[in-house]
Amino acid sequence: MNEVLNNIYTRRSIRKFTDQAVPKDLVDEVVKAGAHAPSGKNMQTYRFFIMQKEESILALQEVVAKGMENPSYTFYGTKALVIVTCNKEDVNGVEDGSCALENMMLAAHSLGLGSCWINQLKYCGDKPEVAAYLDKIGLPEGRRVVGMLALGYAADAGTEHKRIEGLVTYLD
Ligand SMILES: Cc1cc2nc3c(=O)[nH]c(=O)nc-3n(C[C@H](O)[C@H](O)[C@H](O)COP(=O)(O)O)c2cc1C
Fold this sequence. Notes:
The protein is an alpha+beta fold. It has one domain (about 5-150): NADH Oxidase. About 40% of the residues lie in helices and about 15% in strands. The chain has a 4-stranded antiparallel beta sheet. Helix 2 (about 25-35) crosses helix 4 (about 95-110). The two termini are about 30 Å apart. It binds flavin mononucleotide. Flavin mononucleotide (FMN) binds near residues 117, 118, 119 and 120.
């Protein structure tokens, strides 16, 4: 099987990470792959905000936990976090950002890293107290959070999910 297909078929969402930090050059490569995602009309509407300091990641985790009213909420002990945003006005912003997230997940896997899409900031990012925090840490005004990527060295293998029946129909 060719390497690209093998990478697609063997990627898993990883929700447990080792304590090992992710080298900056690997983070750079993963985010570069995200920035090479296709985008509607080549507008490249995705923007990437990266956190690598543990205290910053934990502080955001606490803000999201409060925003979700779920005190036990975690980012799975991720060693690096990539927040993907677009502008609220971008017609294809969510689609573009989703392509970027998938590119990053596949790039991470190909580089021996585990990753997981984390959604919750998308839901609570417009709550006033969460939005104020995002303003404070430097996310641009008018943003829409598409999703976040947890990134690190996998501490477990993830789970292989069988494909459900009937996903594909060939039409005449
Ligand atoms: C749009 C989207 C949102 C997701 N949000 C979360 C999330 O908030 N937390 C999480 O642990 N996984 C999240 N995931 C990962 C999915 O749960 C995961 O892709 C799915 O269970 C299939 O597992 P796999 O990625 O290992 O194939 C998300 C995935 C997508 C595509």
